[in-house]
Amino acid sequence: VNVKETGKIIMVDYTDLKNLKTVEIEAERFLHDGGFDSTRRYFITAANARGKLVVIDTKESKLVAITETGGQTPHPGRGANFVHPEFGPVWATSHLGDDSVALIGTDPEGHADKAWKIVDSFPALGGGSLFIKTHPKS
Question: Which of 69, 127, 114, 64 minimizes the C-alpha distance to 93?
Fold first, then answer.
């Protein structure tokens, strides 16, 4: 549960519906939207008014990282996962406020030095973008 402007995320454990358990995680203000990495363990969400990405380990219910995107107003929708030839598994976000696309490394085991950091950024066509996706045959 994103408590948006407060900078908090509340994880809800639904394994026992009669006794729900919650964990409150301090994150970053102005959380907006996001999606899972390719393993579905880590949730990456944009604090778009702050120019940052927040990474949550959903297995451990813990904050993993807060990373500056280098772009203006990240707006990933659910983001896009793919394997980069140099950086391994990455997650991509576009930005509303400029034409940049930022890639964050998402492999803490195979590419630990790149995990949860911006590994690449490049201009896209046009000025600003709402969402980014990958093609299933790419």
Answer: 69
Q: How many domains does the chain have?
A: 1
Higher pLDDT, 34 or 4: 34
What pTM was estimated for this model as a whole?
Answer: 0.90
Q: Compute the distance between CA of residue 50 and CA of residue 8 in angstroms, rounded to an integer.
A: 14
Domain that holds residue 67: 4-123
Separation CA 53–CA 66 (nearest Å): 6
Query: Distance (Å, rounded) from C-alpha 130 to C-alpha 119?
Result: 21
> Mean pLDDT over residues 20-35, rounded?
92
Is pLDDT at 3 greater than 80 in this prediction? no
Pick the closest to residue 93 from 79, 83, 105 (CA basis). Answer: 79
Residue 79 contacts residue 44 (beta carbons within 8 Å)? yes
Q: Has residue 65 got a pLDDT over 90?
A: yes
Q: Tell how many helices (H) and how many strands (E) occur in the chain.
A: 0, 10
Q: Looking at the domain assignment, is residue 134 inside a domain?
A: no
